[in-house]
Amino acid sequence: MEENKAESGPIQYIVVRIEDEQYGFDIKYVDNIVRMQKITRVPKAQHYFRGVINLRGEIVPVMSIRTKMGLSEDEFTNETRIIILEPEQQGAVGVIVDEVREVVTLEDADVDRQMCVSAEGRSSFINGVGKHNDELISLFDISAVISD
After folding, report:
1. CATH number of 11-146
2. What residue stretches are annotated with the CheW-like domain (predicted)?
3. Would the CA dihedral through 129, 15, 141, 20 be positive or negative?
């Protein structure tokens, strides 16, 4: 009985836009999606942490995924959202994205785990590329995104 090789089956992803690219967050880590709001700055935090927000009485640190990935500064619009991630063994973390697009379901066959090498260094945050309706979606490795 080998349980390690169990088929993971289809996984749902929240597809977001960051600059001109589409990225996916595994929905099992997404606790909430909130509109952009006032972020209280925290002194001496990592350069990509924008500060904290108060979400229903819980203080949630918020980071700029653009800054962490070495992209241009965030541009806040009516479409800007904060994705609240709740990874295992850790508290909630907010990630600023340009736009939330849709939820997609990807089968194992739709995901290429080999394509995750890029010259820009973004590859460390990506653990696969999904294909959905002739579009490519870079799939975030949640632990890499939120780790210091």
Report:
1. 2.40.50.180
2. 10-148
3. positive
pTM as predicted: 0.87
Q: What is the DSSP string of 42-105?
A: -TT--TTEEEEEEETTEEEEEEEHHHHTT-PPP---TT-EEEEE--TTS--EEEEESEEEEEEE
123/38 Cα distance (integer angstroms): 30
DSSP element (H, E) containing 21: strand 21-26
Angle among Cα 52, 144, 51 to the nearest 5 degrees reads 10
Residue 30 amino acid letter: V
Q: Please list the residues that pair with 10 across neighbouring strands.
A: none
**What is the spatial order of strands in the sheet that 11-18 belongs to?**
99-106, 11-18, 21-26, 135-140, 126-132, 111-112
Quick: pLDDT tens for 81-100.
999 999 887 889 999 999 99
Residue type, 11: I
Which residues have CB under 8 Å from 5's CB, separation 6+?
Answer: none
Alpha-carbon span 5 to 36, nearest angstrom: 41
